[in-house]
Design a protein that fits this description.
Layout lengths: L1 H9 L5 H25 L6 E9 L4 E9 L10 E7 L12 H7 L1 H10 L9 E6 L1 H9 L1 H16 L4 E7 L2 H15 L11 E5 L3 E7 L12 E6 L2 E11 L3 H12 L6 E4 L7 E5 H4 L16 E6 L3 H9 L26 E5 H8 L9 H13 L2 H7 L5 H4 L2 H15 L10 E3 L2 E2 L2 E2 L2 H9 L15 H22 L5 H9 L1
Parallel strand pairs: 1-4, 4-5, 6-13, 10-12, 13-14
Antiparallel strand pairs: 1-2, 2-3, 6-7, 7-9, 8-9, 11-12, 15-16
Helix pairs in contact: 2-17, 3-6, 5-6, 7-16, 10-15, 11-15, 12-15
Bound molecules: adenosine-5'-diphosphate and calcium ion.
Adenosine-5'-diphosphate (ADP) binds next to helix 5, helix 8 and helix 11.
């Protein structure tokens, strides 16, 4: 009996000190794991916002972008959360009534006030960038363009956002930021992957931007833009052709057909049966064509459609100048262009037009595309209107011309071949964000793409929590094992013997 009592007294599990140590050990480990998990638990995501207004020649669009409030520097994280199409025409069309340019933006701005959380309003940067429409107005009448900017600026400052100014983008910026946008959205920059070229077709200008291995910027330096993004160097070729957006090219084509000031023209780029009376002074009211206005013209001319793709292509070719090139190679109008390289994303009016014509699939051979255009252009206007009752007539009348221009620009202008045509993808959006210059513009102005690759944490959150938990468990087991000599079974051994 006395031996048994002695054993019981010697059993360490029964001493208050051991019990206290064990309890403290368990509490400490539980606390450690809890702190590790809580500390690293992803907090409910907060977002930052940015707003960019794209004041194009034909219309203005507002884009809202959002990104997690932390980790601004991570690629692929900024996303478009909302867009709003401003009613009416582009701001450059308000040259004679500038206040209306400001007023036109109100509805979309009010929508932005609803979409961006109130708490974030004051720290949300707001930018307006104007493109070729304002470039042309500025060339034609710089005072009028200033007044439009004043009115637009005054209207935008009435909203609670952090207004960062309104300005005209250079053609180079427009091309380069479009390229940044598509490559950013496609996650090509951070990973240092081969980049995608960008083709942007507007109403008043068109841009081509791509990286070519045999272009280092020494030939025609004005076409070169260099970037260092995420630790990678890029030497981008970019060019913007002012007056080669599809609306201004239509003017150029009509100017070509009205050189002698006729009262009627038979236009192969419009459907048979299409007939409209047009005003000479309206047609020639643009710096792209104003110097070609016939000296003696009637007030109006009758614009009749003929619907002939091949002849339309001849008219369109006449707006390009292929005769002079002082460089090793040119696209058109004496503009240097290196060898085309890599895949291309074609957006804005490229997409609208090719999508309407059911021609976005570039695995369709170029010859077939031309056959389809031939038959589309030859379709009588009455039938076209009947087939598309919901499409705006002004757009509908021009798809034959625009489709012909796109194919001619790509093949004759930029030298895409039957083979390289299939490298083009007609796109509207990438991962939910519109392709266009606006996102690249904002990323640049908010310094959201670092020059050097950001330091990545050695362990992701889940890895960190797992390792801490495993370590804690190991410590606990080690602690228990270290008490082994004092385990009851060990101390009972003498009894067995
Ligand atoms: N649904 C559509 N169908 C055809 N063309 C369209 C459609 N939506 C927009 N567009 C055209 O896209 C072009 C957009 O150009 P825009 O960005 O306004 O000009 P720029 O970039 O030259 O300043 C315009 O020619 C406009 O008419
Ligand atoms: Ca545009």
């Amino acid at each position: 009996m006395s031996a048994q009592r002695e054993m019981k007294e010697k059993n360490p599990w029964h001493t208050p000190v051991t019990i206290i140590i064990t309890v403290i050990g368990v509490i400490a480990i539980v606390a450690l794991v809890t702190v590790a998990v809580l500390q690293n638990r992803p907090v409910p995501q907060k977002y930052k916002y940015g707003i960019v207004l794209d004041a194009g020649s034909s219309h203005t669009a507002l884009y809202i972008y959002a990104w997690p409030a932390e980790k601004d520097n991570n690629t692929g994280r900024v996303q478009q959360t909302h867009s709003c199409k401003v009613k009416g025409k582009g701001i450059s069309s308000y040259a004679s009534e500038p206040l209306k340019a400001g007023e036109s933006l109100k509805l979309c701005m009010q929508e932005a006030e609803q979409k961006v959380p109130r708490k974030r309003h004051h720290q949300t940067p707001l930018y307006l960038g104007a493109t070729a429409g304002m470039r042309l107005l500025n060339m034609e009448n710089s005072k009028a363009s200033e007044k439009v900017f004043q009115a637009v600026g005054a209207a935008l400052q009435k909203f609670p956002f952090s207004y960062q100014g309104a300005r005209i983008l250079s053609g180079q910026e427009e091309g380069a930021f479009g390229w940044v946008t598509v490559n950013y959205l496609d996650d090509r920059l951070k990973q240092g992957l081969e980049t995608i070229g960008a083709l942007d077709l507007g109403g008043a200008s068109t841009q081509i931007s791509f990286v070519s291995d045999n272009y280092d910027g020494s030939e025609s330096p004005s076409n070169s833009v260099t970037f260092r993004l995420y630790g990678n160097d890029y030497n981008l070729y970019t060019h913007s052709f002012l007056c080669y957006g599809k609306d201004q090219v239509l003017r150029l084509a009509l100017a070509h057909q009205t050189q002698s000031g006729p009262t009627t023209i038979l236009d192969p780029c419009f459907h048979p049966g299409y007939t409209e009376t047009k005003n000479y002074s309206v047609l020639y009211d643009s710096p792209c064509v104003s110097d070609r206005k016939p000296l003696e013209d009637p007030v109006t001319f009758i614009h009749n459609g003929q619907g002939n793709f091949q002849q339309c292509q001849e008219v369109v070719k006449s707006v390009f100048n292929f005769t002079t090139c002082k460089y090793s190679q040119c696209s058109f109008n004496g503009v240097f262009q290196p060898h085309l390289q890599g895949p291309f994303g074609a957006f804005s009016a490229y997409y609208f037009v090719m999508n309407f014509l059911n021609l976005t699939d570039t695995s369709i051979p170029l010859e077939t595309v031309k056959e389809k255009l031939t038959s589309y252009c030859a379709t009588p206007w009455k039938e076209i209107v009947k087939q598309h009752p919901n499409v705006k007539l002004s757009y509908l009348a021009e798809y034959c011309f625009s489709g012909t221009y796109i194919i001619t620009l790509l093949t004759e202008g930029y030298n895409f071949t039957s083979k390289s045509y299939s490298d083009i993808k007609f796109i509207k959006k990438i991962k939910g964000s519109d392709a266009g210059w606006t996102l690249g513009y904002m990323l640049n102005l908010t310094n959201m793409i670092p020059a050097e690759a950001p330091d990545t944490p050695p362990l992701p959150h889940a890895g960190y929590v797992s390792i801490v938990t495993v370590m804690a468990l190991l410590l606990f087991i080690l602690f228990i094992v270290s008490l082994r000599p004092l385990w009851p079974s060990c101390s009972k051994q003498p009894q067995i013997v």
